[in-house]
Amino acid sequence: MLDRAAPGHPISDRPIVIEAADSFDFGSVEYRRLFCGASASAFQHPDWLTAFYRNIAPAHGAEPLVITGRDSDGELQLVVPLVRRGDGAIEYAFLGVTDYACPIIATGVTFGAQTRQRFRDVLGHHADLRIGPVHHSHLHEWRQLLGSEPSALDFGAHAVRYGFPYAEWRRTNLGCRGAGSLDRKARRLAEAGGLKLELVGPDSVRQALVAARDFRAGRFPDDPMQTPHGLEFYIDVATNGARSGLARTYRLASKDGPVALVFGLVDGDCFRYILLACDYRAHARHSPGRVALDQVMAAWAAEGGKAFDFTIGDEPFKADFGCTRTTMHEFRP
What we know:
Blueprint: E1 3-4, E2 17-21, H1 29-37, H2 46-59, E3 63-70, E4 76-84, E5 90-92, E6 104-105, E7 109-110, H3 113-123, E8 129-134, H4 139-146, E9 151-161, H5 166-191, E10 196-199, H6 205-216, H7 228-244, E11 247-254, E12 257-267, E13 270-278, H8 280-283, H9 288-302, E14 307-312, H10 317-320, E15 324-331
Parallel strand pairs: 5-8, 13-14
Antiparallel strand pairs: 1-7, 2-3, 3-4, 4-5, 4-6, 8-15, 9-14, 9-15, 10-11, 11-12, 12-13
Helix pairs in contact: 2-7, 5-9, 6-7
């Protein structure tokens, strides 16, 4: 059941068919229409979820479980992308790569008791359900759908909003010392062989992300990029996302080759940074990662971007960019 609030009328449960399926076409016209009108994040974009179920879920032995809700005309109103693990547990389509778990809900739709009841009936009342990680901006939707309260996770998300003019905001945000230090390191990198930030086109994404995988080797525990399915997942999202506008891969290069690569998602006026890879063997003394992020932030602001999201994880360097921390949550109804 779903509820659509008519203007000036009280909300009440209306009969909507809620079903569970082991497959769903996230590239379909109906899903794209639903997504475009929903308040979901870039992690629910058709390109992201298509790549997730193609690459990540099978590699983890997780079966797709997609909940849909349709009105009496058969129009799609709700999608909840889930997976069923080998032990029978049901969780959001996360599996270590989806930073923000969010239901995809048609504009104007809200939930009542009948909706929650039917949702649990479809899943099975004894199902071990886990929904997370959930950003605070999506708590309302989950509370309505699940009828329960979340618990706080032990990590947060970090983001910063720009001020204008950007150069002045940067000095204030990073501090004169921080901004000056990054400027000096960028100059030294440039002196070592020129320096250019470029946007990688869809036909060059695979080569760029293979180089990123090699730069990251041995640096991060449980790095998805070091697995065949993880690498293919990011290549899938980055290639299709470069064409659709979802994803961007930036390359900071010198005359000798790539210095650093930054991959992330475009979400309205916000850039959601996901992956960073640097040639530390050649450039460690110049902090190439921080220089690359600084230049990508500047490039995004120059295009009219208003926010830069460093997403989940409490790495100390995020504070150096003036980020605000937001606690992440999990539902275990």
